[in-house]
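User: I'm curious what two different proteins look like when written out as structure tokens. Can you demonstrate?

Assistant: Sure. I'll show them one after the other, since each token string lines up with its own sequence. Here's the first protein:
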Amino acid sequence: MILLHNCMWFEKLQSTRQMQRIIFGILVILISVSVSCTSDRSKTLFTQIDPSISGVEFANHLTPSEDFNMYLFRNFYNGGGVAVGDVNNDGYPDLFFTGNMVSNKLYLNKGDFSFEDVTESAGLNTDGYWSTGVSMADVNGDGWTDIFIALSGPNEGAQRHNRLYINNQDGSFSESASEWGLDHVGLSTSAHFFDADRDGDLDLLLLTNSFENLGSFAEATGDARKKTAPGAGLIFYENVGSSFIETTQQAGFYQNDIAFPLSASIGDINNDGWPDVFVANDFFERDYLFLNDGDGSFTETFEPPLVSVGSLSSMGSDLADLTNDGWLDLYVSDMRPSTPERFHAKMTYETWQEFNEQQKRGFGAQVTRNTLFQTVSLPSTLPSELPNASNTPSIVLSEQARLTNSEATDWSWAVLIADYDLNGHQDILVANGIGVDLLDQDYIDQMMNPRAIAQRRADGETNIILSMLAELDSEPLSNAMFAQMSEMNFQSRSTQWGLDAPSFSSGAAWGDFDQDGDLDLVMNDVDGPARVYRNQTLEQNQKQDGERHWYAMSLQSRSKNTQAIGARVDIWMDGQMMRRDNYPQRGFQSSVEPGVWFGLGTQTTIDSANIYWPDGTLQTITDPSLLTVNQRVEITQSSVSSQPTEASQTTSSLNSSHYQPNEHLLKHQIDPMFTRVEPMDIGIEFEHQAFEYNEFQRDPLLYHMRSSEGPAMCKGDVNGDGLEDIYIGGARGQEGHLYIQRMDQRFERVRSQGIVRERTSEEVDCALFDANGDGLDDLYIASGGNSLVSSSTALSDRMILTEKDDNGALVFRDTGQFYPVGSTFESTSVVAPYDFTGDGVMDLFVGTRLKPFRVGVSVNGYLLEGDGQGGFRDVTSTWAPGLQELGMITHATWADLTDDGQEELIIVGEYMPISVFGREESATDQQPTYRNLTAELGLEGTQGWWNRIMAIDTDGDNHLELIGLNHGLNTMFRASSESPVSLWVGDITQNGLIEHILATQIDGKDIPVALKHHMEEQIPLIGQRFPTYAEYAGKSVQELFTRDELARTNRLQAFMMESMIVDWDADSNSDRLTSSPRIEKLPRWAQVSPMYAGHVHDHEGQQFLLLGGNLYNVKPQVGAYDASFGVAIDLEENQAQLDTGFQIFGEVREIVSIRLGHEEDPNQSEILLVARHNDSPVVFRVEP
């Protein structure tokens, strides 16, 4: 009714943009009314304070014109910031908002969520100047909060310089940027105050953008990173007392024109006691991480092996300890839509070729999604691969946003990490929304067509840009809140916490506005009113008889850095530590209230607190009166350090070791079990060199390459001397290497043409075993991959016999047979020797991975019977007909799973269940067969993307359990029995070619992964049926295709992606296993990437499962899987340990234990040899 009654009024509006703004305002009101009518907002964690109560009536309205708009100024819709700080020293945090096309505003906090606008009297009115970021800090060290404002906007006018407002201590401020040397003119985004050199005063890092047009960087490379472009990128100012001097180059920061920094996060990320700097860069340049060298300079390190991937359009960022382990973790926001409707209507991605080209140009691997990096300390046994600072432990950043379901929040800005619900785990707030949907694909297709624009100009049309803007969608979005329920277990809580009102939010900050102990929120929205939220955690828990406790500190240092910016506070409770860092500038263009806040959950006592002051001194507090929960204490460094040292309050100077968490924080710490050894030290000189081939040109609607699953690696005794030898398979175009172990425990490569028949083979698996009974192990090589055609002989497996000539020299002879069957060439994946016929001669199982050009079509497993002379024949049809067309096999093993004295064949694969085939004797003296026991063992429904299966007695009960290594959970492909991942495979268009439709299930609908233009390129009928992206967006597979079309396909499904342990109990009424297995997920660190390799290591009677994985060759839309760096899992506790020394970077494919020396040799030792795709192997010496 409101809209109907006002349509005449709407017609009088001069600007379509005004109409959009008013409609949006009415929409917000209507939604707020609707919500209040349908739910009790008092039950949400946050409640929005009405402006009539708060007095905060600021609104950052934008009015584009033909001469000034987003096409002429790329940051037009980036919005403004907000700062929280006590500017009048009355104990209440005040609010400052920056406006782009409206004046900035300062509101004094009068208590009880009442604020007063004092902008005019404070001298802070800034009409006409485009303000972006705001920073509050005591710049001159007089104990009063000053305000720095970053300016941007049109490159014209005499008053575009950044502003520094010095607090006059009387409610007014004096603009003093010029006097302090901070009056830079440019496209400034934000400024960050911190004591970079620990000299007691605040230095400044300014983030700016280049004026250059993005199109001018089409040929740019990473070499431009270190080329100076004055006034662009990062500008560092050193505080020299009463002014700042620019020392960017000396400090090691990049002042270039290819970086478009939007935010920075500062903290001691490597725990050496010095502040480090992360910079989030928009567009094509990768992000930066500057580690502090401790001498006033920084070294940039945001590249492998420290980190493998970053966000492409990095916007907001924040550093905080998310896991309570004493190390700062990093979250970066990007712009990936969270719903299928918006994803398919608003999103596009680089092709595989473009993605690789960007890396070749030096811009690193970047993906369009939020990224969450867990910082992990690695033992000092690791050598040179990782950066070290001041002899601190090496660190690695493991990217896990997909694991936490926090990778997609649409066009996102501010990131604020804090414990909002006081449960002891920090949460993540992401402010999002864009004033106009710049990436609307229909708009780009139709309105941004250069010919269409040229025609409009030719027709004499004026105000073309405003007309184009009027046709753009403007969809307000809910901000995202990810609540951490337990360690790295996040759940979306935007609606439940009352933060789901649609908006275009940019800047955001937290502070305890009412001083009750929980953190309240304030947001600066584009084209909408600013919002103040009251946190009701404490009231809610009192009403519900629940417990939520808190603790907070206000800090005052003895230096000119009066607010102790850069201080770190650790509190200890029953052996558990929590860390907070006092860096107010964080998120995006904003500042939070100075100080530190801890949510304690149900914890009622604090044992001690350590304050690491910015000048490098440590203060330990044990006085119970200063550690009482549910209070905010004020700690002044000078009053403590001037007193005699006492047990309850002590101060000392520090070296870097003091900043490391205590040893017991490494939750399962043991002495390192493994030490890295250079491969050349034991004579191994090999590097797997992957064949460059783009499978996505062959299978455009698939997202993972299947030619990166090698190399093969196996061990055996080739020359019969009792020493273990090694074969490492080659990539396509590369020879494999056979290494013979010598008596001195080194290896020597054997070169023989008998080993090399096909250099074009992709060697993915191998087995060394005695095929002809001569006491020498022979070599079977499985050839696979997806880069060859089905007629290529390079796909055939090879059997190479080891013999000795008359002089006792080794001779290798290729039998010349084509395996697994001679009539066809197939891409195989696994060979598993076992005497299944029971005649004393080794037989084989060989699994097929795929059919070239027909990925997804079920392929065969083969049983090959050995003849004792090194030959094999296919007996599948008589011994195990159920192996025919079994699926896409990836791995298999033989093991006596059912305790019947006969080994079962256990097979896994892509979209396959864990399949078990057991031997069944014939009642009529006929040949035994292998029958499928999968259903009997309760393994139906275990379809996954399995990579390996292992049979191990993990619990010491003398029964084997299964360990299945799967795709993992750090992925966009989330599967369950209720919501499977599906792949339709078939000739949908009846053109004689196989098409693939990959889909994930969202809200009960099978939503295709493929973007419209990708689908349309392969299946043109999609474009005919759904001409626009909007029509395609959100459609299910069943809505895109007819029943008849889908009937031409086979639907494959995966129900689980977790790597796991499967166990059975024995049936009390029989000797058989029960049909209800217990399935237990392996720990989180086993889920962070696809796992391909596993090995069980016995350490002093304790079993550890060693795992390695990662997969890089995937489409950018999906994103590489690179978060694993090796993990050891204590199988008794099912807990991960990261401190064993078993750390590997890269794509791990095999782990083999090798004994050096003879079995009876007292000087024997053990190594682990780890094969990596497209890399050299890694060698670990096993410590006794």
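Here's a second, unrelated protein for contrast:
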Amino acid sequence: MGFQLTKQQQAVVDNRGGTLLVSAAAGSGKTRVLVERLLDRVEREGLNVDAFLVITYTKAAAAELRSRIVEELSARLAAHPEDGHLRRQSTLVYKAQISTVHALCAQILREQGHLLDLHPDFRLLDESEAGLLMLDTLTEVLERRYETLEEGDDFSFLVDTMSAGRDDSRLVQIVLDIRGRVQSHPRPAAWLEEQERAFLLDGVAEAGETVWGRLLLEDAGRQADYWAGQMARALELCACDDVFEGNYAPSLSATLEGLRRFSQAARQGWDAAREALPIPFPTPGRKKVPAGLADAERVKDLRNRCKKRMEKLAEGFVDESADLLDDLRAVHPAVRALFALVRDFEGAYAAEKSRRGVLDFSDLEHLTVELLVGPEGPTELAGQLSGRYAEIMVDEYQDTNEVQNAIFSALSREGKNLFLVGDVKQSIYRFRLADPTIFLEKYRTFPSYEHAREGESRRINLSKNFRSRPEVLEGANFLFRNLMSVEFGEMDYTPEEFLYPGPDFPEIPNPAVELDALDLSGEDEEERLAEERAARVSRDLQEARFAAARIRALLDEGFPVGDGKGGVRPAEPSDIVILLRSPNTVLPHYARALAERGISWEADGGGDFFASTEVNVALALLQIVDNPRQDVSLISALRSPVYGFTADQLALLRAGCPDGDFYQAVCSGAERGDEPCRAFLEELEELRFGAADQSCYQLLWRLYDRSNLMGVFGSMSNGEERQANLLLLTELARRFEKAGHRGLYGFLSYLTRLQEKGERITAPDPGREGGGVRILSIHRSKGLEFPVVLLCGLSRRLNREDMQRPILFHPRLGVGPKRLDVGRMVEYPTLARRAVARQLEYEMMAEELRLLYVAVTRAKDKLILSVALTGGGRDIARLAPDAGCPVEPQALAACQSVGQWVLLPVLARPEAAPLRDAGAVEVPPTLATLGPAWDIRWIPGGALKRPPVSSQTEERTVRTVRPTGMGEGELREALTWRYPWARDVEIPSKLTATQLKGRELDREAAEHTPQAGTRRGEGVLRRPRFAEEEFGLTPAQKGVALHLVMQYIDFSRASSEAQVAREVERLVREEYLTPEQGKAVDPARLAAFFASPLGREVCSSATLRREFKFSILVPARDYWPQAGEGEEVLLQGVVDCFFETAEGITVVDFKTDRVAGEALRQRAEEYRPQLEAYSRALEEITGRPVCRRVLWFFSENRGVEMM
């Protein structure tokens, strides 16, 4: 043994007699101790190494563990070469069961599967293959259900409720989601039955008696208790001034009493809690108070925040208990039908797998449970199999689920030989159905090994860290003792969970934990608005540039890191890692920023497979081999680097054959002698010939060879990566056919389904230059360590997408459906959904907190935390009232990002003065233990908006070059030459009525039109939907809404204000308008138009055209006098409406401008160029003259003639 065990580690090695749970903190050497315990029993007890069952959660981890055991065995055998027992183990170690849980299950099923009529030669489906088979099976099940559909039955109600009146794609998603999540239960069918019974509400008289009501009442009670404490604190602060106390103390006292009353009522039941609301907030007194009282401002802020939070809480208690129970009873038929559908699907899926002789991963676990666990406990077979193993050792136990736990327990001789090791603070795989509460329940109930009786389960904590410097460990301890609790994080971070330093480290300069707060708020209002338009991208790129600059500084200064031999050496790029929650979306920014600093980098599984150019080109070629009459695929293939058609060539082909699909245009071009078209069609014909007789795998390789795809893309930048993606596409084809599927159309459909499901498919990463800075997700970093860690992206908003699913699922609370008012097609949450959403949100935040723990414990020598603040000091000021040590769980629950969690305790540190100064706030000093000082910096973001200035550029000198072979006149002429059509280059190729004087709907025709003097990306942005709901529509959006009504309204049903209102309601109902747009339209304004002579003329016309889009070529000089002779531009626009009369065409354009009097005529003149453009287009297209042009201003209910 090459290392000295600590007291705790030695206890792990020596302890026997019952289930042993080892809570091994990060870097505590759990793998070494596991190996030592196993070999100690081999040596001291004479056991064979293959008498141990060792389970871990990945094949790579299993292989590494086996190699560690082999290495240690070899060392011991070298020390005792005469030991025959050890020599025997060096052979048996390769027979030992060191594997994943799925490999164990597969072995048991191949041996004993005949007891379940399972063929021992079954094949295991991979995840994508299983997903395809499930989708096909569910489609068949639904088709059979639709054939027997009867009005009023449960399934009919389910379709209406879960599909919300649309197609059944959402229902398919729900069934697959429920079926997948329920697999974490040992008996999924029994769980479904239990949950179905819960919605019967047998014996339930009040909402608070349900599991969902209890959870919401407990949560509301915790909120009330927290704010009662805050109001009590506010009352104490009132003593800062007698007058202020007289103003505010009575109001605060009433609020405090109301909060306490509500907290008590919440323990009695739902209706009692409802009666205790709203919480009173009497108006404070108005006597004048001296200015500048800091405590007075704190009191006002606390009261205002409490009021907002309690108003939000009261919204959840609007409904009475009886109404909530009625909602649950109303959705019971849909839930019953849903579970019945899930059971039908499971049965059909199992039958299809049996027919094919295949199993999926969940089958391995559930069929093993069926063999090993009976109604009364472990089966006879479980007893027989358990005799094989002297001990069952489970690594990473925090990531287990109930099914796997049932297997371990059944094989463990009633728990007498179970050795479980893990760290629940590193449980970060809940999305893979891991259940950290299994570990937590044992951790809380098992006594310490020092107090456990013989045969009793016991617990040992490994808390000494051998990875990181004390500064890093104390930094982690500071964060988590102030953030993690049972209420927020599912466990308390007590001295038992602290990280304690192990070995001594050589001294280095500035090893302190560094926190950099980046001020990305912008220097002025104009800059801020520009940043808001750039939004998230700008923030991510600026943070990436800061990270790159910090890394460059560390490398340039030769920051010392451990050399593994007790000394130090200068850091290299490979010593540094950038950890991100989700790198894929921001990887291009970090790649760019590192390249700007000349720093090599590498990332694992970087790009999106389906978004890559090479895969898109290959798929386009496959699609036209299957059917060449697909315009998008055909044009993609022609424009690709393989065939290289230019946009002008394609335009000419279309102009030469304006009718028919684009394949017909290509054929027509070939007939006219176009050589590229002819060559392309010949190659396509060769590829299509015999394609039906080839497998997709063979066809792909034939396509690669014929079109030289591998060569074309291999010669581009990142060529190895591109070729790896093309190879992965052939591997997907091979898997598809191995699963028994055939046909090119089926393969393309399979890929489309993978894309729609959002499957991330990544090829093995060929690496960049090697030895560079690594960019990793926190999940992928688990189990690794790095000398320097930069933890970035902490300002990313917490992901609450799971709470937005059509139906929510929780392993204990069950399902959370919405209720649908079928008559109005309005969905609203049930009591169950609200409770499940709340619990899922808490569990999500607990998992994010554990991810933070994993991230900060990866660092060995230096930890740098980066928090980007788009609000700058304002963000600090908003956090300051809740800052402290420890931070209240309710304050943490209200945060929107992990970065806010980090800042709340940090703001109370003495070193955080730069942050407090930036926010112009004071935070009371904390008496909590702080540990070593942090290096806390406030970083202005101005320099991060631009790429760094290259030092090479600064130092570059100018050299004089003497040209040879050219006379002075020739040289002067060459140097002063100007492109003769330079002015034409500045003229856009397209022009829209919007650029003359237009409206929002004309932008449809101008989506891709570059506008003179406008930088790309500076277009007018639509107000987000949530802002529309809260603040209403902007004037421009109201104009769009009115134009949409005029486009879709039935003119024959618009003769009165009431009829117009009904038409608007219809358009909202049929989703032509959003509800916000419907509210913004004034029916009286529209009715006034239809009642006018012009309106009656419009309604009576038989030739009326609405929203008429046009595109015509016009001389460029008509709009740009400097344009060259013969230059043309494409004029586009959308005419509101026009109609024909005997005299000619009447053009009507609707305006929502709010102008009156003389200003109305002036505004109308501004629109003349637009109307002239409309007239020009209509005359050219129809061949008839425009005799009349009218602008109708809705604000004034009048028209203005413009002829």
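A detail about the second structure: The mean pLDDT is 86.
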